[in-house]
Amino acid sequence: MQEHLENTIGLLERTPGALDALLRGLPEMWTENSEGEKAEGEKTWNARMVLAHLVHCEHEDWMPRARTILERGEQQVFDPLDREGSVRAGAGKTLEALLDEFARARVKSLEGLRGLHLTPADFERRGRHPAFGAVTLSQLLATWAAHDLTHLHQISRTMAHQYREAVGPWSRFLGVMQCKGHSE
Prior knowledge:
The protein has about 180 residues and is mainly α. About 60% of the residues lie in helices and about 5% in strands. It is built from ten helices and two strands, in the order ααααααααββαα. A hairpin with a 3-residue loop joins strand 1 and strand 2 (about 135). Helix 1 runs parallel beside helix 9, helix 2 runs antiparallel to helix 7 and helix 4 (about 45-60) runs antiparallel to helix 9 (about 135-160). The two termini are about 25 Å apart.
């Protein structure tokens, strides 16, 4: 993982800018509408909700868990991610405020990550996830990058969903219109 850390950081540092370029200043039709409801009656997330989730994870997930791995190893189970934390992270904030907060938090996270001066052995150090059991720092960092990509994909899919009827017969050529999501 060490040789790939700068590649991972390169992706992580671009996510806030990509979201800012995509979302800032858009009409609410793009940022407040979702894909509707899931079969269980649970509502799907809109772009604003995804952004609030990313802010919450930036504060409560990635770097706190990396530090737990490095400081306590498998002796301490990671705190479970508060599923309602995203709601609190977004409460009363504009989309623009969330974009700004995410950008600031990500800069701070990546400064912290670089400041760890990780060695090859550090990437194989293990922590304990509450559901998965033992996980390595390398897996956590790869998941952080893939998590960003998952949510960029989710936002694109949600936005495309707003045109599901309007595209007419072209729908069959637009993969984003066929995608049903991938997360559990």
